[in-house]
Amino acid sequence: QDKGTKMTEFWLISAPGEKTCQQTWEKLHAATTKHNNLSTNSKFNIPDLKVGTLDVLVGLSDELAKLDAFVESVVKKVAQYMADVLEDSKDKVQENLLANGGLLEQQRQAEHKFCSSSLDAVPFLFIFKGVNQIDNDLKARASAYNNLKGNLQNLERKNAGSLLTRSLADIVKKEDFVLDSEYLVTLLVIVPKLNYNDWVKQYETLAEMVVPRSSNVLFEDQDSYLCNVTLFRKAVDDFKHKAREYKFMVRDFQYNEEEMKADKEEMNRLSTDKKKQFGPLVRWLKVNFSEAFIAWIHVKALRVFVESVLRYGLPVNFQAMLLQPNKKTMKKLREVLYDLYKHLDSSAAAIIDATMDIPGLNLSQQEYYPYVYYKIDCNLLEFK
């Protein structure tokens, strides 16, 4: 399918059976594909469920709306976190998540998994508990992985950036310093590149008792050189003071091999831990995305069933259909559906025809059409 014209949203609709439900399906399919290619359609099979009283159905309708919103939020959280975890390969997220053959395959699995003969026995609590567990597990796993990632990023940040602040563990070596001397000490100085010639000429005379020819360039970044210089301990304060006047900054730094080794080991450990956790986490996200998505489609199917019985009455006789609209012709598709089904509900037709707001009738929150309609938005990621 051409990604440019297909929408990532699906419309799940239902209409009453004509003489047979097959006729309802054929009529819709012909109206939307025969001459105009408005959408890609498929039947959406919902198992026959035993229906309780009207009161029960109205109550179920409200409960299902809440459950739908909750399950959708978890589906999107899992998808968004998958995008966060995959970092540089965000384009692979959608394909990773819908790896189980897309929406129709998930719907078939939903049918199989949650099949129930009675609406009263529909496992609402079962669906809620399952998805709630995914939500809680996601929070715990995300928190652990984010901590690890955050600690690693902090260490990586220390190893980058300005010579004034960055870690020098991977830059300096033991031989760059005079160590264990009672009288002598080696300082590290950041010298702006523009002032380097001044440094070479003047560092030996910035204070008394600087060791001649003791300065070398140890490292450079875009703007500065990192130089060492050795002098007598008692001249350090004078040297620092004078150096500042010439824009030479002395770094507060003690050479400590153990500490630097520990930093490196910590970074390696965090990096290894992150790699170890990455694979299982992505697998967990894929599996649980699929579970949550199947639960979501199941809730949509139940909503269509309940709403269809409430609208079209008993005995149960309706056909549910899944439409994937083409991007450029969505308005036209709405018009075709409206013409097909406006006879079902004259009050809805009047509302759709009216351009003014009718006092006391607030339909702005909820799209209302003469046929049962639920949107399934598969654009699960904010960055898309």
TrEMBL record:
It holds the Pfam family V-ATPase_C. GO terms for cellular component: lysosomal membrane; vacuolar proton-transporting V-type ATPase, V1 domain. Keywords: Acetylation, Hydrogen ion transport, Ion transport, Transport. One of its GO terms (molecular function) is proton-transporting ATPase activity, rotational mechanism. Belongs to the V-ATPase C subunit family. V-ATPase is a heteromultimeric enzyme made up of two complexes: the ATP-hydrolytic V1 complex and the proton translocation V0 complex. The V1 complex consists of three catalytic AB heterodimers that form a heterohexamer, three peripheral stalks each consisting of EG heterodimers, one central rotor including subunits D and F, and the regulatory subunits C and H. The proton translocation complex V0 consists of the proton transport subunit a, a ring of proteolipid subunits c9c'', rotary subunit d, subunits e and f, and two accessory subunits. Subunit of the V1 complex of vacuolar(H+)-ATPase (V-ATPase), a multisubunit enzyme composed of a peripheral complex (V1) that hydrolyzes ATP and a membrane integral complex (V0) that translocates protons. V-ATPase is responsible for acidifying and maintaining the pH of intracellular compartments and in some cell types, is targeted to the plasma membrane, where it is responsible for acidifying the extracellular environment. Subunit C is necessary for the assembly of the catalytic sector of the enzyme and is likely to have a specific function in its catalytic activity. This is V-type proton ATPase subunit C. It comes from Melanocharis versteri (Fan-tailed berrypecker). The gene is Atp6v1c1.
